Amino acid sequence: ALKAAGVSYEMHMFEGTLHGFHNNSTPRYNEAAAALAWNRTIGFFRKHLV
User: Fold this and answer.
1) Phi and psi of 6, rounded to 5°?
2) How far apart are CA 1 and CA 16, in angstroms?
3) Phi, psi of 21, rounded to the nearest 5 degrees
4) Mean pLDDT of all residues in the chain?
5) Cα angle at 38 between 34 and 40, to 5 degrees?
6) I want to staple 22 with a disulfide (CB 3.0 to 4.6 A). Which of 2, 30, 34, 50 is the partner?
7) What proportion of the chain, given as a percentage, has pLDDT over 70?
């Protein structure tokens, strides 16, 4: 739907992770993937919101 509407977007898959991999209070936590996801999120915000 986004592509059909001409919307620019990014999607990243984090192989080997489970839902909530960024929550450091659960066994699903994946420190490396969480750091990468956070950095990408902040980069996206800086590019599109600031």
Assistant:
1) 75, 20
2) 27
3) -60, -15
4) 95
5) 120
6) 34
7) 100
Q: What does the pLDDT read at residue 10?
A: 86
Handedness of CA 14, 39, 10, 27 (dihedral sign): positive
Q: What is the pLDDT of residue 50?
A: 82
- Measured from the Cβ of residue 20, the count of other Cβ atoms closer than 10 Å reads 14
Collapsing DSSP states into helix, strand and coil, what is residue 7?
coil
Model confidence pLDDT, tens digit, residues 7-31: 988 899 999 999 999 999 999 999 9
Instruction: Return the structure tokens found at 33.
Output: 């993937």
3-state secondary structure 12-45: CCCCCCCCCCCCCCCCCCCHHHHHHHHHHHHHHH
